[in-house]
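User: I'm putting together a teaching handout on how multi-component assemblies are represented. Below are the sequence lines for each component of a complex, exactly as they appear in our records. Could you produce the 3D structure of the whole assembly as structure tokens, so the students can see both representations side by side? Please keep the chain order the same as the input.
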Amino acid sequence: MIHQISGGVCAARGFRANGLHCGIRQNKTKKDLALIVSEVPCQAAAVYTTNLVKGAPIIVNREHLKNGVAQAVICNSGIANTCAADGVEKANTMARICAEATGLKEEDIIVGSTGVIGPSLNLDPIRAALPELISGLTADDAGSERAEQGIMTTDTRPKSAAVSFTLSGKECHLGGIAKGSGMIHPNMATMLVFITTDAAISAGMLQKALSTDVQGTFNMTSVDGDTSTNDTCVIMANGMAGNPRVDEEGADFTAFMEALNTVTVSLCRQIAGDGEGATRLIECALSGAKDLKTARKLAKAVVCSSLVKAAMFGADANWGRVLCALGYAGADLDVNRVDVSFRSSAGEVQVCKDGAGIPFSEEEAKKVLLEHEIEIAVACGDGDGCATAWGCDLTYDYVKINGDYRT
Amino acid sequence: MIHQISGGVCAARGFRANGLHCGIRQNKTKKDLALIVSEVPCQAAAVYTTNLVKGAPIIVNREHLKNGVAQAVICNSGIANTCAADGVEKANTMARICAEATGLKEEDIIVGSTGVIGPSLNLDPIRAALPELISGLTADDAGSERAEQGIMTTDTRPKSAAVSFTLSGKECHLGGIAKGSGMIHPNMATMLVFITTDAAISAGMLQKALSTDVQGTFNMTSVDGDTSTNDTCVIMANGMAGNPRVDEEGADFTAFMEALNTVTVSLCRQIAGDGEGATRLIECALSGAKDLKTARKLAKAVVCSSLVKAAMFGADANWGRVLCALGYAGADLDVNRVDVSFRSSAGEVQVCKDGAGIPFSEEEAKKVLLEHEIEIAVACGDGDGCATAWGCDLTYDYVKINGDYRT
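Assistant: Of course. Below is the structure of the complete assembly, with chains in the same order as your input.
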């Protein structure tokens, strides 16, 4: 049984967190530095952006996670530490000064940065803030919230999720925090996700769980189709729940995967729903595709279509755009067997059957589409492949945030 | 020698054109029907959308062009005749009534439609307008212009280009008209291009020329990344220039390809520059890629990036977004050898060298980017592959046109 709980990255035993304003961002009301620390070393795993241009923190984290062990995450917002000539040196130094201040090993520190691409990262504000950052670490909801705020950029709200679950009779906890799209000096929809758990699980199984999970969660989430240079998702397991360590597949691994998926799906919905300028969360629930890979391609094409996104902003039941997106997804599909419905808390309206339009009430459709969470349900007639993709609408504010912030 | 001339589809000998308002569109000031007729049967070729969802006209044209012969094009705007149960029947009837009214063979008629997906196409207004449409055909610039207007939707200006050139000492002409992105009842960035020439060339060589050319022209043009269901480019050659027919590769075929390319590049620039809501034409000129395929992937990723497009709207020299787009293009690239410059009629500013930012004058960059035609010059260090891609900026008006037209 999985129960949703509060606490974010502090939901699991033995994790403390904090966040504060150190001065990388000019606006003093915005936190720009976060720290998450485990009492004991953790088994750890991570996945990174597939962009060939990679932020310097990713290069450092890859080295640090070679042994599958980590104990803390330090992350700044404001500067991405990407495409800067001194990037790797700065990321290494950031880990070292954090290790010195916390008394942990440098190679057990995970570093993160999000913000403008190009500028060199000034470490002085971080160095100066470390004592206060460390002394303020707490293991409660408030600690996680401060960390959530420390990694936010143009996110309008902090993002977290946590669950309790049971492995071999022991109560475990797993929680995460995330930042989505946008920068105060807008540059990049960098996604950062940090997940903690007190479950005992090997680094290998943790990597397996994470790598499998992201295919159906974070990799199915899109705000604007631009894959960031800094996307990172890290998970740390400190074993303090005292369960027999999960070292192989089986009932416990399956239960762990379910708990992880509950948290990651919640974070995906929060990231998509708070995409730059977004007024609506769009969820494409696709069924009946030839196979899983095809289903994912099709669902993602729908939430990535600029025309579908703009139609959702206008609460316009423009189903032809959904069919168009399915048609150019590059996936195998019998377009003459596609049904499309729009759903929300206000009801459900079917708009397309067997690839052609059917009569529907525009008024009813408008009512459905004016809600804040919209499901585009696509049923294909080709097989058993199912997938869900998350996105948001395309709005004036997206253009404003990314276009004319200097004018 | 290729000379730019006026006349669009009427630049070549023996072609007449017309366009008028027949009533498919509600706004009576907007033409919604176009006709292009050759005095004699033409060798013809076409390329169509790769979208699995295809407009009914495409299905009919494929049949009609099996013999490589065509003599006229009839095209309406307002309704796309796509995803309608009676679509193919309507497209066939449209060809038949046009054939009856013009005295041509039904299988020599090319049909086109652009507009809303879903609704059934009412042929009554077309049937009623055919006599006037035919009697008004003229072989001059004005005839081509009326046809250009007849296929426009939310295009803000008609689009045409034409050249004269020489094949084996005979003066030939080649011209085309195009419509770009947007619908009065917005639905789809359907691109339609009709090209005529009086050069004598076989249907096979015409297909070869067109299929080769579009890879580097129309397929490198993007307004919003949504591949339409109705995209069509047709070329008709009536041979009235009297040159020895081009039946194989050689100097004449090369000269023909150059003439064709001059017209298609011009039409691409016109389509991109008049993309929905666009205020700027963005041209990505990419050199030094590993090979041609890689160059095309990279250049297209840059003009398709929502973040690059929004930055160009804001005249913001946000080169990190260009690097980011190159990085996720899915192409082989040494990101540490990439240089980026912004160019326009106001000057040139280099912003990135060897994958990292270099100091530049923001003021100077702003001046360059405030022009209406912007070149993003990307030099890679991997080989000889070069490509150009055309796009436009992402603006409030794009969202307006596609989002809230009902509110």
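A couple of points students might notice: Residues 160 and 177 of chain A are 4 Å apart (CA to CA). DSSP finds eleven helices and 15 strands in chain A.
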